[in-house]
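Tokens for chain A. Residues wanted.
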């Protein structure tokens, strides 16, 4: 807290500063601080802009550019749609021929210390199963965590998860 004399000194300082700035503002020479502007012709403005690297177009030229850009964008969209349609047809043809014929097969050796989680990761990486969590859920839902047996097994991607698990546990 300020004492009474400290507060008076602060008030006097604020008053004095305000008086000095007000005097400078009202009685100062305004014309010396203001810049003078000269009128610039349209030709001079164009020259300055062109020398700075700007390209100047009339309104008609601008409208023509906008119209041509819109027509080009429409043509690009048409081509993209045609390309997408052609790509979809090719993908459908490939799925019909390749997707049904491709069967992955792997040999798996289950050793001591392996878990169903390890086996699920191997089967997922080799393309035998699509989702390791689905495999692990099947194991836990059927309480088969401790039923894993050691040995060599051969699996292919046409097998279901229950058939894979039955081979691993029987």
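Reply:
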């Amino acid at each position: 807290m300020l004492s009474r004399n400290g507060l008076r000194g602060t008030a006097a300082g604020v008053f004095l500063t305000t008086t000095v700035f007000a005097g400078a503002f009202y009685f100062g020479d305004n014309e010396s601080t203001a810049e003078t502007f000269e009128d610039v012709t349209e030709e001079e403005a164009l020259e300055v802009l062109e020398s700075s690297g700007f390209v100047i177009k009339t309104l008609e030229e601008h409208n023509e550019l906008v119209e041509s850009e819109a027509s080009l964008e429409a043509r690009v969209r048409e081509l993209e749609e045609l390309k997408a349609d052609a790509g979809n047809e090719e993908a459908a043809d490939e799925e019909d021929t390749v997707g049904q014929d491709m069967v992955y097969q792997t040999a798996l050796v289950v050793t001591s210390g392996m878990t169903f989680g390890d086996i699920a990761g191997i089967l997922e990486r080799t393309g035998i199963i699509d989702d390791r969590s689905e495999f692990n859920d099947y194991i836990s839902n059927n309480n088969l965590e401790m039923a894993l047996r050691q040995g060599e097994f051969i699996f292919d991607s046409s097998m279901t998860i229950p058939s894979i698990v039955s081979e691993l546990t029987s």
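The chain is about 65% helix and 5% strand. Strands lie at 105-110, 151-156.
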